[in-house]
Amino acid sequence: MSKAGVPAVAGATAQAVEVAGPFAVLTLPVGSKPDGVAVGPFGLRVHVANNGSGTVSVIDSGTHTLTTSFGPVNSPIGVQVTPDNTHVYVANSASDSVSVINRDSFSVVREIRVGKNPFTLRVSPGGVRGYVTNRGSDTVSMIDTTTNAVIATIPVGRGPTGVVVAPDALEVYAANNAGNSLSVIDTSTATVTATIDGLSAPVGVTISPDGRRLYVTNRGSDTVSVIDTGTRQITGTIPVGSGPRGVSISPDGRLVYVANSASDTVSIIDTDTLTVTATIPVGHQPSAVAITPNGLSAYVTNSGADTVSIIQTLNAMGPNRGPMTGGTLVTITGTNLGSAQMIRFNETPATILANTSNQILVASPPGSGTAQVTVTTVGGTSNPKPFFYYPNGFVDAIDPDAGPVAGRNSITIRGESLGTASRVYFGTVPAIPTVVSDSALSVSVPPSSTGAGVVPVAVWTAGGLADGERAYTYVVPPVLSGLTRTSGPVFGGNTIAVTGSYLATTQHVSVGGVTARFSIGSDTTAAVVIPAGARPGPVDVTVITAGGTATLSGAYTYI
User: Fold this and answer.
1) Contact indicator for 413, 443 with CB cutoff of 8 Å
2) CA angle, 11 then 37 then 461, to 5°
3) pLDDT number for residue 280
């Protein structure tokens, strides 16, 4: 421990702040009956849907102050900020609509009619789709955010409340409060592909960053169910406080925060042990919870107290890594930080952007290797925290560099310094890579958001955007129309032409299940050398391209 008055990245006390172990709790007044809450993609602004007053409050996360409120909106209950930070989507429970709000001007640019009594709203990681649970009509509305129109209405279980989008955007999960179940939605077909039973009045749902686990609050049993997304099975049940409702997971996937509306607490779950490691008192009737991108602060709406509780992790710094070029927004939490005079990364000063008694927001200066970060105030200099500088990496090749419009195929990205890669973008659509080595990533390609065509591929590492301009081509599945000859000798050797569309990326041709030699003439024809047949009779002709597979059943006859 440091001596009195010396800043320390450790426990803190401040005016209007309560300390609970390694956490500080700050309370801010907002509008009437706050419900939904969303943190912007950069973590600088927090938006709160005030259901009772018909407004949305905006909180500055650096200074922990309420900067503005905008409206009117009609009984807002759910809120989300788009990944590009340009628009705020608000679900209005009383008017069966979603308001699309310009984040800079706070003006409503579109009203979208959805189902009855919309409850929760989530935007896909790439920002191209929005999903709204309609509690009164037992549906989920799928919104195209480029046109701000509903493109599908998906029947789910009874009384859907919480909803979450998988990190790869291939699936959406809706908690059916009255149906005691969870609906699994395939986003490419906009249909329910599975229903997971065994829940008890579920309300909220969140998903791990790797997409492998779901955490669902059960208001009927005061528990959180842990679900394996691969097997669709409940693998764990965790007792929490009374009336659990909202739930959110930290960006590193280590902690789950649960708002217990009947016990006025937040349970914090360790995802390694699946146990509650802390119970934090908050305001009356906590409803929803959202966590900042650095994982250091959780914002909890208290519907019965017209406040927001900010649960801040102390003795911490995040993020603790960034590009060598600098510019990373770093939050430092601790005590006696209100009079900060200087933040140093080793000996290099950093720019202080915001400062409170227990939090400092700075921009990292350029650097390399490991820097020790210290805070200097009138009372002295704090204990150091390490910050790691990383190169941005380089992308050398993508293999294969083409695939179906529907995605879901696996590719390999090769290059240098890719070991910290966290996202791969295909155009604007993100995918989560699996790090094979520092020079190779394995990626499941997401569905195209724009149909067939070429999109840029961008890899984001701890060091920023990787160098190397690479592209990926989405290809329409092949269509076969016929053969120029439909029969031939059983010993093969003759050449025919397969006609159709989208054949330019043909990778494999088989006749009767036997691989055939081929050459591509154009996008509409491929010359095929017929292999020897097993016996006389009709056989299938199958063509596999980068876009998929097509078969002419019984189209060729061996004689």
Assistant:
1) yes
2) 70
3) 96
Partners of 260 in the β-ladder: 244, 265
- DSSP 3-state of 226: strand
Cα–Cα distance for residue pair 55/50, rounded to 1 Å? 5
pLDDT score at 408: 87
Can you tell me which residue has the tokens 């009779």? 537
Structure token digits, residue 278: 């802390």
Please give the share of the chain, as a percent, with pLDDT higher than 90. Answer: 85
128 DSSP 8-state letter: S
DSSP label at 8? Answer: B
Q: Report the distance separating Cα 407 and Cα 410, nearest Å.
A: 9
pLDDT, tens digit, 9 for 90 and up, residues 198-255 = 999 999 999 999 999 999 999 999 999 999 999 999 999 999 999 999 999 999 999 9
Residue with the two structure tokens 């179906």: 404
Yes or no: say if 451 and 523 are a contact pair by the CB < 8 Å rule.
Answer: no
pLDDT for position 323: 97
Rounded to two decimals, the pTM is 0.86
| Closest among 32, 119, 14 to 69, alpha carbons compared | 32
**3-state DSSP: the chain helix, strand, coil percent, rounded to 5?**
0, 60, 40
Residues 6+ apart with CB under 8 A from 338: 14, 355, 356, 357, 377
**Of 498, 542, 486, 548, which Cα lies nearest the Cα of 523?**
498
Between CA 542 and CA 78 the distance in angstroms is 49
Q: Report the DSSP pairing between strands 139-144 and 525-529.
A: unpaired
One-letter amino acid identity for 527? Answer: A
Length of the chain equals 559
Q: The tokens of 475 are what?
A: 């290809």
Tokens of 298: 């959780």
Q: What angle do CA 186, 162, 83 make, to 5 degrees?
A: 70
Q: What is the DSSP letter of 341?
A: -
